[in-house]
Amino acid sequence: MGCCESSFLAETHPEKDHRHKQHHHQSLNPPLNHHPDAAAAIGIPSFLEFSLTDLKAATNNFSPEYIVSEGGQRAPNVVYKGRLQNRRWIAVKKFAKLAWPDPKQFAEEAWGVGKLRNRRLANLIGYCCDGDERLVVAEYMPNDTLAKHLFHWENQTIEWAMRLRVALYIAEALEYCSSEGRPLYHDLNAYRVLFDEDGDPRLSCFGLMKNSRDGKSYSTNLAYTPPEYLRNGRVTPESVAYSFGTVLLDLLSGKHIPPSHALDMMRGKNILLVMDSHLEGKFSTEEATAVVGLASQCLQHEPRERPSTRDLVATLTPLQTKSDVRNIAGSIYVPSYVMLGISKHEEAPPTPQRPLSPLGEACSRMDLTAIHQLLVMTHYRDDYGTNELSFQEWTQQMRDMLEARKHGDLAFRDKDFKAAIDCYSQFIDVGTMVSPTVYARRSLCYLLCDQPDAALRDAMQAQNVYPDWPTAFYMQSVALAKLDMHQDAADMMNEAAGLEEKRQKGGRGS
């Protein structure tokens, strides 16, 4: 199967209930941006203030069953998972009573962190100040922490290439925060590194906020705390580099080794003493030596001798590229969920109350294979009447265009989705003839190549050509669900089902 690298959309999509379809569609046509440092990625809602009622409803009144982590005595706060009415999963951090006595100070701190938007962060999406309650709300990451995958694994340890990816992505997160004027990160450790639905590592935004207005910034064992923090109680950018060094040690060793002990081991120049035995030697000595060297620099006693976040990214980037290329021959990028050995989480839009056609059922399950089979079987039956061509329009250009469509159909049937995209694009770009079916087919090809943004645009174009076509709405529903816009996906699914019901009662023949 030909697949295309996924892209990020450089536009924030606020969490609003879009009822007016045309307005909603216009807001979903931003430019493509392949860089993870786009200021705001689609699917991440804008920062807002939540009511306590909303957060109680999302967490079943802060039920103990919803707790995903708890701080110790030195950082008395609790993190809950929850689900908003629009079906978005969230993580809610509840601070100790009156940890922030002044609600204005707390709101300012939350808004400062809430301005950040990056694919390397588990982003902050809101806060709540209500009486004595102080809460912040972030994107929920469903695939556990680095600590769980490194120290408490059951099925498989993290392979070397994935450890390098974790190191790079977290370095990129810290560099982004630094470039946006938030260089201080409190208590960076393996519990602060989270894995999203794709298995990609992300840095928890909770560490960008202090545990209280003037409270402790470190809650872990003193052996892992930067030496200057023990002297003056202040966190600096150099303290963050030290803590990053402890995370590198965790990735190298698969254990939580006190930095002083690890430095003694590393000074002996025998990296095998440091390396995780569970890797069974499946790592590059050259790469491991580079990471050991970087960890050693980060853990220097003198803060000024430690690398900057820019240095971290510069050192780790070339290692990542080498490892990916060697990991799977002929492939530049291996998805993180594959390397972690987890199933990719797909959340289907809820099934509407109305009965669904086979295509509707397949879309509600997000079963792309079944959708493909049904579109192949339907062929161009639904295009009838969308084009009325005169004899003069049957030119050589027209014949060439239909030949491109024919090649696209063959590639689509044979599941060569990249080739199908190319051929269908030739057909569409000529513009003499419009075909909602071609748009629907290319939309599915984009979904199968992990480009839901492009898939959504094609499904919208199919609707423009044929405004009452259920297939166009079904394809939009799947693309929106892939973009984590589940309420919009549910709305589209219901519109599609309504159009099908209308057809069955005597509308346009199916």
TrEMBL record:
It is found in: Cell membrane. It catalyses: L-threonyl-[protein] + ATP = O-phospho-L-threonyl-[protein] + ADP + H(+); L-seryl-[protein] + ATP = O-phospho-L-seryl-[protein] + ADP + H(+). One of its GO terms (biological process) is brassinosteroid mediated signaling pathway. Transmembrane segments: none annotated. Its EC number is 2.7.11.1. Keywords: ATP-binding, Brassinosteroid signaling pathway, Cell membrane, Kinase, Lipoprotein, Membrane, Myristate, Nucleotide-binding, Serine/threonine-protein kinase, Transferase. It is a lipid-anchor. GO terms for molecular function: ATP binding; protein serine/threonine kinase activity. GO terms for cellular component: plasma membrane. The keyword Lipoprotein applies. The keyword Nucleotidyltransferase does not apply. PROSITE patterns: PROTEIN_KINASE_DOM. Residues 65-320 form the Protein kinase domain. Pfam families: PK_Tyr_Ser-Thr, TPR_BSK1_C. Residues 13-35 are annotated as: Disordered. It is an enzyme of class 2 (transferase). PANTHER family: SERINE/THREONINE-PROTEIN KINASE BSK5, SERINE_THREONINE-PROTEIN KINASE BSK1. Belongs to the protein kinase superfamily. Ser/Thr protein kinase family. This is non-specific serine/threonine protein kinase. It comes from Rhododendron simsii.
